[in-house]
Amino acid sequence: MHDNQERIRLCDCNRSFSLDAGQLAAAGVVASCHHALCAQDLPVVDADLAAGRTVFVSCTQETALFGELADTHEAGQRIHFFNLRENAGRSAESAQAAPKLAALIAAATTLPAPEPVPAVQMQAGRSLLIIGEAGAALGWAERLAGSFDPAVLITQRAGEVELPAANEYPVWSGKVLSLSGHLGEFELQWQQRNPIDLELCVRCNACVKACPEGAIGFDLQVDVDACRGHRACVAACGEIGAIDFARTDTARSERFDLVLDLSVEPLLKRIELPDGYAAPGRDPFEQALAVQSLGEFIGEFEKPRYVAFDAGLCAHSRARKTGCTNCIEVCSTEAIRSNGDVIAVDPWLCKGCGTCSTVCPSGALGFQFPRVPDVGLRVKTLLSEYARTGGRDACIVFHAAEDGAAAIARLARRGRGLPARVIPVEVWSADAVGLDLMLGSLALGACQVAVLAAGSHDAAPLKAQAGYGQTILSALGYAGEHLRIIEADAEEWQALERALWSWAPATGIAVPARFRLLPKKRETLDFALRHLVQHAPAAQAAPGLPAAIALKAGAPFGQVVVSDACTLCMACTGACPAGALRAATDSYRLDFIERNCLQCGLCVASCPESALALEPRLALGEEARRARALREADMFHCTACGKAMGATPLIESMIARLSGHSMFATEAERARLRMCADCRVIDMMKSESTSSSAVKAWDLSE
């Protein structure tokens, strides 16, 4: 129910789908249904805004029209839009869609706006670097000199191309060594290979006329293969001093706001290129489009800081031993790099795909546009309202805001639309939907979760997460396919249609969870898994629940296996970032808490004896939460005085390694290895005093 200051205005878009006001009212939805809210019914919205009411409009197609109307009343903050037409109305099962309609309306009208995400400030001026073959690069520089502040790096000669007569912008030549940075802060490093320094050159062309071989073109580039070393060009250049065949200061660098890369192969070979960098290749039309897009980046900008990073949870490295590199491997923009024991995220390069947060086993990287608790609250609201109004077998479909929404819209216009039980949930990037959201949604009451991978640059990480989840659910006795990654975009809407309409409902949880999804990934997974285990159908069957569920390599759950080679040196406990491996305080014992293990591999990399191995699995019992002994040993005591010296395997390993040393050639000398430091010295003194040939300290001279 809503107070008098709120109005929900629904529209069936010229009766193109069914909106039953009575059915919605029976479900507790107080709303007005219209047939042409953007046309003859527009005055009702105008009256609402004029009266100071907050209005919820079930149309996203005409947001511009309604926005203009709101501006006339200075009511831009009091009008909100949501989509019913494509998400629910236009469907072959529209007659059965009342529960989904009620759920979508409730989520759109009752949920608070998410907290703002911290922003990254970006600024770019008109400094434009153009890299490429002389003809194309200089041609674009001439055209853009009035709109940009161009600089040209010629990387390849081109026939009879001449340098501009007017020296209005820098022109260099050479080989690119590196290009790095981001919008407003690109840095180019190159090596000048042309003996003529174009920065010093006054373009008098005296060198061109002086060269007897014609090795210097009007682009003032020296063809070193044609040059015979007469050096007439050097004499012609005279006191200008622009020509030097023995130049050593060839390394150059400059900074730029924007980059137009006309190379055949782009200098930056990334899946997602940074803003302000364009690599259109040699096609003139593509080059023109690239130039136009670069002009849109001039000015000051603000973009979300898509990912939050908690260094304390990072399992990347310890003591120069590498562990987890998942985020570095999947980052499509190269925004993540190693930074000692942890990783570093460049927020200026990050474009918010969120794959890093999906594959991060510890939750050190958390996607926050939107945050998991915000998405979880939306899912919980949708599922609870859907179930309350009689809906069954709910299937949540996460999709990206642009590409995913376009695919669903195309399906609604040309195909059967979404099934009545399929509830879409929009996120910024589908790649950011990790195992915590998948299993969390199932625990909250969905019987299935799909991720529409439209717009994804690589669906493999999503498929891996879904694979871990499905293995767990099947082992718990939940029948059917619960998790599916659908690779289809707007052009492949038939594939989306087949994937959804042919998907038989799976066994859902009997009692939906009441908790909310949490900011910390491991905590959300823990809550979701405990709830799924508590209500697992396998618990009621004869075999019962398994003690552990085997998973594929790369899973974020598992145990550490220790061989007899372990000496209890405890190097692994110092390397473990999650506290899964611990040294006992009451004896020489290596303890392990399986619930904490991230399967990052730092312990394996740190073990000097190569005694550790990872075993991916999910342990279901409470034992996984308690410390259990992986390796335990007796105390080794000094053979002379009985003093405790350390763990027996560690001392025996040391003795075995030192026994072959020349200092311990005799049996007596080897016996000292089993003594404590004090007894070892005493034994050595006794040995010296009884030996006539032993050298005494007082017999030594300088």
Automatic annotation (TrEMBL):
The keyword Protein biosynthesis does not apply. Keywords: 4Fe-4S, Iron, Iron-sulfur, Metal-binding. It comes from the Bacteria. Residues 192-221, 341-370, 557-582, 586-617 form the 4Fe-4S ferredoxin-type domain. The keyword 4Fe-4S applies. This is 4Fe-4S binding protein. It comes from Thauera mechernichensis.
